[in-house]
């Protein structure tokens, strides 16, 4: 008899050979400048878009909540784990999103899994953008519904698939990221909602990278596209621009009441921790009171895009196949021809004092450098990134 765990080492070996193996790196702090293994680096890999994760007001709120409620919610929200803080936070999210109600989960990933699996089942159809986040794709699988992927942001392809498949199923759910996490582009939401109405479909939009970032009041992509008040299921995270941890669903009162009864990843898990709930609540108040943070973020995103476009000639001269991907968000990506090259560039950037995300298959279809800007980056820091990129050697 062989060792039943031997396959794990073989599987890891395959990952190493393909340059797909990933490992963690311990960072000592948060903000535009970080320390990693004693080296100071400019941070272009954080989801802390508004710079709130290091804000003393969030820390003070979290500490006060721990003093009042303890470190844990101690149980499922339906049993012993519900606190007044949860309710206040859910009201604040509903108010930001202009929906009837909201529900907080322990993470955005769990919010997607639980909501999708509660909305559809084996008699139903899911149509999903091919570049959707892992949590949407795994939620779809968990639901047991028939899943069809449509081409990325291709509404003609979605329409054609609806026309040929919709009739055969009971319910239909359209799934999309609002800001695509590994590209930075936006879902064409108004067209998607028109198709949903025409073919009687529910729509679930993942606002993880848009919450606090897009829209006049920071409500997200739905607000950006002037679709506030439309009937859809909005999911998001408290862990990116809101600088905390947790996920949310916002929608009608009936939807939220249904999820409290049917979403397994909400019912059978401990309620969001008091510290995380309090930090997120404070972050929402800051998002609403300080629109200048969002404006600075927008300015920095525009500057990075423009600087990258200007410097692309230099970069591409060293690395054939480098291409800037279209973006309308603080996520800006340079597609690179293969995994070995992107690793090589990532290493050189680090030597030059830049921390950027190196993303490879199977996370994405093509290897890329993923840069994210924060509201509290300076123009000089963005220029330093571009200089480092143009000096990379082949
Ligand atoms: N959706 C998208 C689009 C994401 O990028 C992420 C996080 N990477 C999630 C959901 C999951 O959110 P959380 O980190 O709160 O689990």
TrEMBL record:
Protein's pathway: Cofactor biosynthesis; biotin biosynthesis
Pfam family, one: Aminotran_1_2
Needed co-factor(s): pyridoxal 5'-phosphate
Transferase recorded as keyword: yes
Enzyme class at the top of the EC tree: transferase
Keywords, ordered alphabetically: Acyltransferase, Biotin biosynthesis, Pyridoxal phosphate, Transferase
Catalytic reaction equation(s): 6-carboxyhexanoyl-[ACP] + L-alanine + H(+) = (8S)-8-amino-7-oxononanoate + holo-[ACP] + CO2
Origin: domain of life: Bacteria
Gene3D superfamilies documented for this protein: Aspartate Aminotransferase, domain 1 (3.90.1150.10), Type I PLP-dependent aspartate aminotransferase-like (Major domain) (3.40.640.10)
Domain Aminotransferase class I/classII large: 40-389
InterPro entries, per the entry: Aminotrans_II_pyridoxalP_BS (IPR001917), Aminotransferase_I/II_large (IPR004839), AON_synthase_class-II (IPR050087), AONS_Archaea/Proteobacteria (IPR004723), PyrdxlP-dep_Trfase (IPR015424), PyrdxlP-dep_Trfase_major (IPR015421), PyrdxlP-dep_Trfase_small (IPR015422)
Annotated EC: 2.3.1.47
SUBUNIT field: Homodimer.
Function: Catalyzes the decarboxylative condensation of pimeloyl-[acyl-carrier protein] and L-alanine to produce 8-amino-7-oxononanoate (AON), [acyl-carrier protein], and carbon dioxide.
Protein family (similarity comment): Belongs to the class-II pyridoxal-phosphate-dependent aminotransferase family. BioF subfamily.
Name under which the protein is recorded: 8-amino-7-ketopelargonate synthase
Organism whose genome encodes this protein: Almyronema epifaneia S1
């Amino acid at each position: 008899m062989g060792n039943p765990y031997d396959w794990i080492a073989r599987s890891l070996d395959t990952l190493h050979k393909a340059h797909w193996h990933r490992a963690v790196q311990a960072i000592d702090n948060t903000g535009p400048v970080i320390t990693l293994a004693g080296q100071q680096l400019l941070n272009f890999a954080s989801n802390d878009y508004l710079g709130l994760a290091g804000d003393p007001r969030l820390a003070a709120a979290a500490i006060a909540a721990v003093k009042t409620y303890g470190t844990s919610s101690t149980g499922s929200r339906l049993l012993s784990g519900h606190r007044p803080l949860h309710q206040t936070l859910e009201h604040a999210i509903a108010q930001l999103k202009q929906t009837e109600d909201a529900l907080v989960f322990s993470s955005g990933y769990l919010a997607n899994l639980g909501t999708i699996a509660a909305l559809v089942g084996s008699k139903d159809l899911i149509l999903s953008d091919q570049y959707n986040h892992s949590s949407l794709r795994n939620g779809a699988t968990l639901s047991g519904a028939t899943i069809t992927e449509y081409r990325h942001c291709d509404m003609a392809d979605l329409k054609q698939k609806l026309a040929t498949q919709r009739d055969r199923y009971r319910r239909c759910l359209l799934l999309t990221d609002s800001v695509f996490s590994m590209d930075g582009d936006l879902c064409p939401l108004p067209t998607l909602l028109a198709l949903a109405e025409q073919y009687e479909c529910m729509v679930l939009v993942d606002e993880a990278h848009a919450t606090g970032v897009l829209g006049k009041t920071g409500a997200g992509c739905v607000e950006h596209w002037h679709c506030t008040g439309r009937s859809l299921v909005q999911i998001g995270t408290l862990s990116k621009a809101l600088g905390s941890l947790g996920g949310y669903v916002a929608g009608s009162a009936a939807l939220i009441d249904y999820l409290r009864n049917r979403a397994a990843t909400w019912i059978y898990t401990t309620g969001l921790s008091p510290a995380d709930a309090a930090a997120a609540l404070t972050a929402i108040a800051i998002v609403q009171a300080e629109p200048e943070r969002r404006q600075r973020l927008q300015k920095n995103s525009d500057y990075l895009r423009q600087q990258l476009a200007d410097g692309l000639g230099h970069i591409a001269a060293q690395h054939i196949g480098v291409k800037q991907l279209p973006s309308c968000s603080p996520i800006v990506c340079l597609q690179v021809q293969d995994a070995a090259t992107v690793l090589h560039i990532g290493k050189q950037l680090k030597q030059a004092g830049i921390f950027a995300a190196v993303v490879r298959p199977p996370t994405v279809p093509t290897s890329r450098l993923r840069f994210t800007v924060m509201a509290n980056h300076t123009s000089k820091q963005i220029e330093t990134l571009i200089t480092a990129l143009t000096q990379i050697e082949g």
